[in-house]
Specification:
- This is Nucleoside-diphosphate-sugar epimerase.
- By secondary structure, the chain is α/β, with parallel strands linked by helices.
- Helices cover 38% and strands 19% of the residues.
- It has a seven-stranded parallel β-sheet with strand order 3-2-1-4-5-7-11, with helices on both faces. Strands 6-13 form a two-stranded parallel ribbon. Strands 8-10 form a two-stranded parallel ribbon.
- The longest helix has 14 residues.
Amino acid sequence: MTRPLILMLGHGYSAAALAARLADWHVLGTTRSEARAEDMRAAGVEPVDWADAAAVDRAIGAARALLVSLPPDAEGDPVLRRHGEALLAARPDWVGYLSTTGVYGDRAGGWVDETGALAPAGERGRRRVAAEAGWAATGLPVHHFRLAGIYGPGRSVLDKLRAGTAQRVVREGQVFSRIHVGDLAATLAASLARPAPGRAYNVADDEPAPPGDVVAFGAGLLGLPVPPEVPFESAGLSPMAASFWAESKRVSNRRIREELGVTLACPDYRAGLRAVLAAGG
């Protein structure tokens, strides 16, 4: 029996986590790197050279599902810009667009759900809002996934603590929402099994928390000294890192639990960091 085909337009960290769950699918993923292509083959994913636009068009036309994880740039969404004609001719059953909770902007630490107004505070958020609208306008069965801060093996505060680069930055009232990459993949898989075109989903865990608390807990897990508190104003953050601190909000995940039936394996950062450590991360 022929397996259905899913194409990951941008086969990065999140897409790879979903691919690992899709044993019943034939997974293709775009990449610019031959070294990355070799890693993908080893994981059972067929690489498609992003530089070969015709090959990407063919993959789009053959796919029953598309996952879009490439970010928009100053000129808009790169997939819509380069493959709009192929997309309009395609007939997938499901399209997942990976967006960000940054589309909601700053909520001064308050809660926000998918009915909240889109009021991004910065240029990256504004690009995401425009990209979401662009994908919705295609008429394809698009599902928007607004992702909180993603972490997991190889990409967590534990790595920064081991490297000695973790800072326990403190700013009064600042909270962030997060999601373990395994729970993100589980949410995408649940949507694949239960399509609802046009729906938006916040993908976040149950417990938004100050970043300093996460650093302190991670240090305790590793048996390392807790880094001293550093006021935000003197932390020396890069412009990109500092832009994240311009927003403080608590992101509700009720919709993925109630509509997709998702049960988070890592409902908070404590469970998530323990899972990362158990996985060798």
